[in-house]
Design a protein that fits this description.
single chain; 363 residues; mainly alpha; 2 domains; 67% helix; elongated
Length: 363
């Protein structure tokens, strides 16, 4: 029930209110719906994106064939993140602060930031479109809602600043000031002024990004220095495979804190992720192959018959975690046999899928 409310009812209610606020002069609690749209919508977007796209590295890194490379180049994240954060902040400021308390120049800058942020988020929506299907179409609800709350914010600033300029013009005495305010007082000219600030704000953001080491083309490379996505221009290395051995699948697909991966290993020429459970199981098989070849053939036949089909249904980290936990008693049996019949069990365990490359620890 909580999942249904969170994923369907809340977005539906917020979207409906935002659509009504776009077309009707009398707004429906914008001071509540705008922050809820940005905060709750953003959190749900991250959640849905995370469970849908198992992103695991930049375009030049090897990942598994059921994973995706980052949709935004990790190095150029600020080129996308900074404009979005500034745009969301601008929407919140306009929502909560009356227009008469915002100077005209600041108002124009805020409007420009909202426009730039929307350009970035729309480009990102196209970036992920290559892999969006079925339930993941819900991601576009948030993209649409950003536009729905942005348009009233921009319209509010243009109309209210135009009205305020008319009031302030009446108090002016110098001819050049009256002429300048008369020019801005026209709604069309006020719009041109605010939209003209987009180029100035974009230039300021570009300078800021250069200081962050993004370069002059960081915003472009953020989308093109990727693989697997709409604007991607990089060719990734071939994927790693772990298909065919369900404990390999568990070690690779499960949550790190549960399955505890140790290092990379090599299995039949393919790079796999190795954890202790996998090493113990393979060491046990190695031992019985060495001591009782006939029994080993029966074990191997049973494993080949049932292990591969099982690996095909381990398609989520949760399923991998469950299999890992269910295999624990059998792992202890294997370990007991190794310590009972092998003179150096730990050496045999450590030699399985031997590789010197340790898995990089994530922050």
């Amino acid at each position: 029930m909580i999942l249904i409310i969170s994923c369907f009812i809340v977005p539906t209610v917020l979207t409906t209110i935002n659509v009504l606020n776009l077309f009707f002069k009398k707004k429906i609690i914008p001071r509540a719906t705008v922050p809820l749209t940005l905060i709750i919508g953003g959190a749900m977007y991250i959640f849905l994106y995370g469970i849908t796209f198992d992103t695991a590295g930049d375009w030049y890194e090897r990942i598994y064939d059921n994973q995706y490379h980052y949709s935004i180049s990790f190095h150029y994240i600020p080129s996308v993140g900074i404009p979005l954060v500034l745009a969301f902040a601008a929407i919140m400021i306009i929502t909560y602060i009356p227009a008469e308390k915002i100077p005209p120049l600041i108002s124009a800058i805020l409007t420009a930031l909202i426009i730039i942020g929307n350009i970035v988020q729309i480009v990102f929506a196209f970036q992920i479109s290559r892999n969006v299907r079925d339930l993941t179409l819900m991601l576009y609800v948030f993209h649409i809602n950003i536009v729905l709350v942005s348009i009233p914010a921009i319209h509010k600033q243009i109309t209210e600043q135009t009205r305020l300029i008319g009031r302030r013009k009446e108090k002016l005495t110098k001819p050049w000031q009256i002429k300048a305010y008369s020019l801005l007082e026209k709604t069309t000219n006020m719009r041109l002024f605010m939209f003209g600030m987009v180029f100035i704000a974009a230039a300021a953001i570009e300078i800021l990004l250069i200081l962050f080491g993004q370069g002059t083309d960081g915003a472009i490379k953020a989308f093109t220095d990727t693989a697997d996505w709409t604007f991607s221009q990089q060719l990734p290395p071939p994927p790693m495979e772990y298909e065919g051995h369900y404990l390999c699948t568990v070690a690779a697909a499960g949550h790190r804190k549960v399955v505890k991966p140790l290092r990379y290993g090599n299995r039949l020429g393919a790079v796999i992720i190795v954890n202790r459970q996998l090493c113990i199981a393979n060491a046990f098989e190695d031992l019985i192959h060495e001591r009782t070849p006939k029994f080993h053939r029966k074990v191997r036949h049973f494993y080949d018959t049932h292990g591969y089909p099982l690996s095909k249904i381990i398609t989520t980290p949760l399923r991998a975690d469950i299999v890992y936990i269910l295999m624990k008693p059998l792992e202890w049996v294997f370990l007991t046999v190794l310590y009972a019949f092998d003179t150096d069990p730990e050496k045999r365990i450590s030699e399985q899928y031997r590789s010197t490359n340790e898995i990089r620890k994530k922050d």
